[in-house]
Amino acid sequence: MGKTIRVGVSACLLGEPVRYDGSHKRSRLLTDILAPYLEYVPVCPEVGCGMPVPREALRLTGNNPNMPRLETRTTHIDYTEQMQRWGNRELERLATLDLCGFIFTPKSPSSGMERVKVYNDKGVPVAKGVGIFARMFMDRFPLLPVEDSGRLYDPGLRENFIRRLFVMKRWRSMLEAGKTTGNLVAFHTRHKYMIMSQHLRGYKDMGRLVARGSELETDVLFDSYFAMLTKALSLKTTVNKNVNVLMHLMGYFKRDLLPDAKQELLEIIARYQSGHVPLIVPITMVNHYVRLYRQKYLEEQWYLHPHPVELQLLNHV
Fold first, then answer.
1. In the predicted model, what is the mean pLDDT of residues 86-111?
2. Using an 8 Å Cβ cutoff, are 230 and 195 in contact?
3. Strands (DSSP E) along the chain, which ranges?
4. Rounded Cα distance, 229 and 203, in Å
5. What residue numbers bound the domain in which 247 lies?
6. 279 in the same domain as 305
7. In the listed set 179, 207, 234, which residue is the last one of a domain according to the structure?
8. What is the CA radius of gyration of the chain?
9. Is 146 inside any structural domain?
10. DUF1722 domain: which residues (predicted)?
11. In b/e form, how buried is each residue of 260-290, taking b as 16+ CB within 10 angstroms?
C-alpha cells in the first residue's frame, strides 16, 4: 500500500528534540524498520500546549490514579487545564486525518498509555496512571489500535499491532469504496481466517451479523461490525488458535496432496505447535500449495499475508 497507513506518534520517538531536557527517545524500530510502510503524524502534547524546550519535568499527581493532575516536579505548577484545552483542539485536528492508530511514549505523564506513575499527596508513586493526552486520545478514539513504543519490542505485541494497522487501512479503503452489504461481505470473507485465529466466537458472531445485513440500517450494520472486529483483533492469537486455522487451511488440499506431502505439512504444523519453528514456516508451505493448486479462495485470505513479508513479523511468533 506504500505510505498510506497514517499513524499518530509521539514526536520524541521520531528523534525530534522535544523532551523536557531537549533530548529525544528515537525508536529505530519506528524510524528505520516501520517507516517505509507508515506515514507518521508527530505529536508532542507538552510542546503543543505551549511549554518551552527545555522545561521543568512533569509528573502526574493525586490520590485517584484515574483522575490525576499534571504538575511540574519541583515548582508544582499545574498544567492540567492547559493540556486539556490544547488536547481538545488537537483531537479535532487528528479526527480529520483518518489515523489508523497511535504509538505513545512509555511512562510519559502526557503520552503514556499505561502504568504511568501517579504521586499521591505523600509523594508516593503508584504506577497505575495514564498520560493526560493519551487518555483523551483513547477516550475520543476507543476503537483505534494504540501501543507504546516499549511494548512494540515484544514480538507478539508488535505483530498484533501492525496487523491491526493494516486491517484498519483495509477497512478505511472499503468504506471509501462504499458502505454496501456486498463490500462488507467481501471484507469479512477475506479476513475469515485472520479473525478465527484471534477470536473464533467473535468470527461466528460477526458472520451472523453480516447475514442479517439486509435487516439493519447501514450505519448500524457497519458500526456494529467494526466494534466486533476491533474487539476480536485486539485479542492476542495463540499457538493453538493458529494450529486450528492451519488445519482448516490444510483441508482445502485433501484431494490434491499426496500422502507424503500431507504428512510433511502435518509434521511442520506439529513443529510449530511444539515451538521448534515460527509461524512463517507452515504459512509459507500453505502459500506454496495455494499457488501450486490455484486455490483462489485461500489466495485472497489476509491471514496468509497480513503485512509485508519484509517486516519479518511472523518470523518471531
1. 97
2. no
3. 5-10, 38-43, 58-61, 69-72, 101-104, 116-119, 125-129, 146-148
4. 8
5. 239-316
6. yes
7. 234
8. 22
9. yes
10. 192-308
11. eeeeebeebbeebeeeeebbbbbbebbbebb
